[in-house]
Design goal:
- 2 copies of one chain form a homodimer.
- In chain A, a hairpin with a 2-residue loop joins strand 2 and strand 3.
- Chain A is globular, with a radius of gyration of 20 Å.
- Chain A has helices at about 5-25, 30-35, 45-50, 65-75, 90-105, 115-120, 135-140, 155-165, 195-205; strands at about 30, 60, 60-65, 80-85, 105-115, 130, 145-150, 170-175, 185-190.
- In chain A, the strands form 2 sheets. Chain A has a 6-stranded parallel β-sheet with strand order 6-5-4-7-8-9, with helices on both faces. A 3-stranded antiparallel β-sheet of chain A has the order 1-3-2.
- Chain A is an alpha/beta fold.
- The first copy, chain A, is about 45% helix and about 15% strand.
- Chain A has 2 domains: about 5-75, Orthogonal Bundle (Arc Repressor Mutant, subunit A), CATH 1.10.10; about 80-195, Rossmann fold, CATH 3.40.50.720.
- Chain A has 9 helices and 9 strands.
- The structure holds a DNA duplex.
DNA sequence: ATCAATCTGTGAAAAGTTTCACAGATAAAA
DNA sequence: TTTTATCTGTGAAACTTTTCACAGATTGAT
């Protein structure tokens, strides 16, 4: 008896969760209207989202932050560790890895991959590193469910395929190329600066007239 | 007499544009169903999107790629140069800058900012660099409309404010923190790994049962 | 020249999402 | 204690977006 949440709702809840975890040390409660200033959404919509959770505690000053964090996490099953891996240990890959160490809790990055065996020997990281041709096996063996791709554009499609064959369920792709897939057992999120630039520039133009 | 496109449509068109520019050297035509494999969308939806453009040329084998690129660009006014800037010249910032040089056409990154004057003197880039405290003035002076933020988390909010005061219309934020704004003259897109991880892991879980 | 296969194009229906209006609740001030 | 201001919670309405069904068009094969 799990009532489903819509995809936009899930995304907004993830953003809100992120904000709350940033704010938890600074304040106790927060109102829906203040929260809306952090998101591209209205207070109405956030309230409606929260109404789909259970056990939310609020008062005239707003929502109890700790309680709301707990409710969102329970509903979304966040906090149950999922194994993740990263492919491509160049500038972006290493930036993500380092930033990750300290910040992403609940996600265990358990493997790094790179095509250059040379690089694998030189790098010093907290996680085990493997050559890229082992992706499929390692993913299967370690039950890795999420992958981050930060390899050069011309390798991204092939690397994605190996992850998919190994059985990952989600991919975040930072390579400047859009990855294609035939299956729909995997959700691919492309993070592409060119696309974002074009989108931003299109909608700001539209808003302004 | 400009018929407005919805935000989801604009975003999909930006993604499609990106794909087409990748594919233009490899093939002449593409069908809506093949395109849909690159996006998290159906062929129906893409066809409907294209029906909102004007001058689209198609045949039984699909859409003419060059023509479609042209139609999307015209409708979205993409290709008209907008000035952009980047703040934070650490690992991510420099990665973006380098990746950018060769790839983002139509956007002139005309300024880089960093808090460390020391760093500004050491770095060798193709674009002029300025200290972070000059953001507001330089943005105004150079008519910069888009900003990329890649500074440490605790500085991002303040840097964003300076860009906004200077008059930018859109911000892409890579700092691992959600930026807040009171005004709605600026569109902020936060690209946050933690949020993406949580979202991915929530929706793949949901899909699988 | 005809047929079969496979595209696109689009109005209408369906589904999904957001907004609104207002009732109810609570905290702080008078 | 009463009032006032300011929250949340939510059903219903409004709006938006996607899906569908099928007509029309084009290509290639026979």
């Amino acid at each position: 008896m799990r009532s489903e949440l819509s995809e936009p709702t899930v995304y907004r809840l993830c953003v809100v969760l992120r904000i709350l975890e940033e704010l938890r040390s600074k304040q106790i409660v927060i109102s829906s209207s203040e929260l809306s200033k952090y998101t591209n959404t209205t207070a109405y919509t956030l309230r409606k989202d929260f109404s789909l959770l259970s056990g939310v505690a609020s008062s005239k000053s707003g929502y109890d932050i700790e309680n709301l964090i707990f409710c969102i996490k329970s509903k979304l099953d966040i906090g149950i560790a999922k194994y993740a891996a990263i492919a491509g240990l160049g500038r972006i890959g290493m930036a993500i890895l380092n930033y990750t160490d300290s910040r992403i809790k609940g996600y265990d990055i358990v493997a790094g991959f790179d095509a250059s065996v040379n690089k694998l020997e030189t790098l010093h990281t907290d996680i085990p590193l493997y050559p890229a041709y082992d992706i499929e096996d390692i993913v299967r063996e370690l039950k890795i469910k999420l992958a981050v791709i930060a390899v050069p554009a011309d390798k991204a499609q092939e690397i994605a395929l190996r992850f998919i064959k190994g059985g990952v369920e989600g991919i975040i792709n930072f390579a400047p190329v859009i990855i294609k897939t035939d299956v729909d057992t995997v959700y691919i999120k492309n993070i592409d600066l060119v696309t974002e630039f074009n989108f931003l520039s299109s909608i700001v133009k539209t808003k302004g007239e």
